[in-house]
Design brief:
22% helix; six-stranded antiparallel beta sheet; six-stranded parallel beta sheet; Rossmann fold; binds flavin-adenine dinucleotide; Elongation Factor Tu (Ef-tu), domain 3; 2 domains
């Protein structure tokens, strides 16, 4: 992923202070839903690049990333300052194996996200793959505040197209929000609340779980899933959960 191509910012949306979607027009190679590109800017003589999952499905353009500003981070405060017409660098090729290609067919696909990790699943869910390969798809999005529940229209569109096969569960940790569960995803797994709301249990015989987001959620979820008998997927030894850690 060391070759860079120039891209233009074509749109920026601030969902809340510090939470952004950015649209980019750049000539990257074909990619698979679930992969990330590196976005870079030249800062004080250095090219500073960070990986971002693509939110758009492979068949759609513009490219889109979804990110939050890390106040002391080298890249994100500068990235969020950009406006349409400004330029960034992109890795010419997307990378990563957090895709459905590494998931064996099973009954239920569970997609667990914290924060901006929602984006990777929005790409996957807008391809035919999950709907051809799984009977049911459950998306769980954990955030701190109600305002961090984003992409509502897009999620409504997926729900309208897929009907009962798709369930979306918003989870908010710091506030009581109508229609959302209160707490942390991992606590709601431990208590059984999440599965009882969905009327479905995560079981190695009929489930695959994808985990994406912060290290605390992934670390705690791994312990819970392994306690249920799920094994981490490896190329040589297929298992029932896969992970991608953002930070
Ligand atoms: C494979 C992969 C895909 C990624 N995809 C995305 C994505 O789609 N959207 C996205 O927002 N981020 C994503 N990230 C994280 C992203 O690459 C950057 O680390 C992040 O945007 C911060 O960049 P920065 O240069 O400002 O700070 P960095 O130098 O990268 O990080 C500074 C500090 O902030 C922490 N940090 C990093 N990200 C966050 C965050 N989101 N919230 C709080 N603390 C954080 C880091 O652990 C570090 O301690 C991804 C990371 C990986 C490894």
């Amino acid at each position: 992923m060391s070759d860079w191509v120039k891209a233009k910012v074509t749109g920026k949306h601030a969902w809340t202070q510090g939470l952004y979607s950015m649209r980019l027009d750049g000539p990257i190679a074909d990619f698979t839903a679930g992969q990330y590109i590196k976005v870079a800017m030249d800062i004080a003589g250095d090219r500073v690049g960070r990986p971002y999952s693509l939110v758009n499905p492979p068949q759609e353009r513009p490219l889109e990333i979804y990110f939050n500003e890390v106040p002391d981070g080298p890249l994100t405060p500068r990235l969020s300052d950009l406006d349409p017409g400004d330029e960034v660098w992109l890795s010419a090729k997307a990378g990563g194996i957090f895709t459905l290609e590494t998931v064996a067919p099973t009954k239920t696909l569970w997609l667990l996200a914290t924060g901006t990790a929602l984006g990777v699943y929005l790409s996957i869910l807008r391809t035919p793959d999950p709907w051809e390969r799984f009977e049911r798809v459950v998306l769980v999005h954990g955030v701190r505040e109600a305002a961090d529940l984003t992409y509502g229209e897009m999620l409504d569109g997926i729900a309208a197209r897929q009907g009962e096969r798709f369930s979306f569960v918003p989870v908010v940790s710091r506030a009581e929000v109508p229609g959302a569960l209160r707490g942390r995803i991992t606590d709601l797994l431990t208590s059984g609340t999440l599965e009882s709301v969905l009327g479905s249990r995560i079981d190695p015989s009929d489930s695959h779980v994808m985990l994406c987001g912060n290290s605390a959620m992934i670390k705690d979820a791994k312990v819970i899933l392994e306690g249920r008998g799920l094994i981490r997927h490896k190329r040589q030894a297929p298992g029932q959960y896969t992970t991608e850690q953002y930070h």
